[in-house]
Amino acid sequence: MATSLLLLFDDIVSALDDVALMTKVAVKKTAGVLGDDLALNAKQITGTPADRELPVIFKVAIGSLANKAILVPAALVLNWLAPGAITPLLILGGAFLCFEGAEKILHKFFHSKTASRKPNSTLNPNETDDTTQTESARIRGAIRTDFILSAEIIVISLGIVTEEPFPTQLGVLITIALLMTVGVYGLVAVIVKLDDVGLLLLRQPYSSGQLIGQALISVTPWIMRFLTLAGTAAMFLVGGGIVLHGIPMLHHLIDHWAHASSPYIARPLMILANGTCGICTGILVLTVVNIANTLRAKFAVRSTLNL
Q: What is the span of the domain harbouring residue 178?
């Protein structure tokens, strides 16, 4: 009996050791996507009122956990039943990320132009900002983006442990999902609250604390601006990278050309290729969506007139 318990304990320790080892490898492989995930989520929170930042981050983190509760078993089942379907689904998710990036840039320029043409006028007292609706839309957008990035990270992790026993696969995917959620949203919470920490330090009687506080207050807006730009760029880089990897012939051709040009700049060239692919994909999908919306609006008008 004691021998059986010891053997069982040894098997459990061995399995946990395999999970830890495979998780370490998976973290290294997905580190770049995790960085993009951090930039994108910090960008999504940018512009939220200070007193609502942490509640919004908490709601997005809960939504992220729900995403992973769906993605982990779905990835395992899909890998078992139809492993060939994972790549097309990832390509669709990457194309959607590129579309969102292109849409955000178009909206920014269009919104700025529209705002500059508006004459100065007093606000109608009956017109109120629906902050609840804006916050809900921001949360939904962040959770939607998180779903695509989480899917990529889960699939990359699954590819690393695909030859391992099922318990190891499950353990690695759950560990990666939890580490990713806690790490990303914990860092996002720290970043968006840097200015509050700075204000707290400014109230301290010590000069060193006040200097640090002033530095934090000064640098926080620049960090948020950088993350806003980095988040938009990450949409094109991650989305373009997914689309490019989903077209093996094109990816191998560009990768071979990049390494043939110079091994030292191969990685920057591949990043440039991912970004270029992301921008082209975003413009293409945005154009198709706009044409479809225009045609749908015309058909709706015609149907109304016929009635």
A: 14-115+134-306
Tokens of 168: 């190891």
Instruction: Report residue 191 as tokens.
Output: 């970043």
Residue 222: strand, helix, or coil: helix
* Token pair recorded at residue 244: 């490019």
DSSP state of 123: P
Here the tokens at position 286 are 């945005």
Report yes or no on 3 lying in a domain: no
pTM: 0.65
Q: Is residue 9 part of a domain?
A: no
Number of domains into which the chain is organized: 1
pLDDT along the chain (307 residues), means of 10: 47 53 55 59 66 82 90 86 79 82 79 50 47 74 81 76 78 85 83 79 75 81 75 80 84 83 81 90 92 86 72
Q: Which two tokens stand for residue 112?
A: 């700025």
User: In this structure, is residue 140 part of a structural domain?
Assistant: yes
Residue 62 lies in a domain: yes
Residue the block writes with tokens 């490898």: 25
Q: Please report, to the nearest 10 degrees, the dihedral formed by the alpha carbons of residues 81, 63, 156, 224 taken in order.
A: 160
- What does the alpha-carbon distance between residue 179 and residue 164 come to, in Å, rounded to a whole number? 20
Question: 138, 146, 166: which is closest to 77 by C-alpha?
Answer: 166
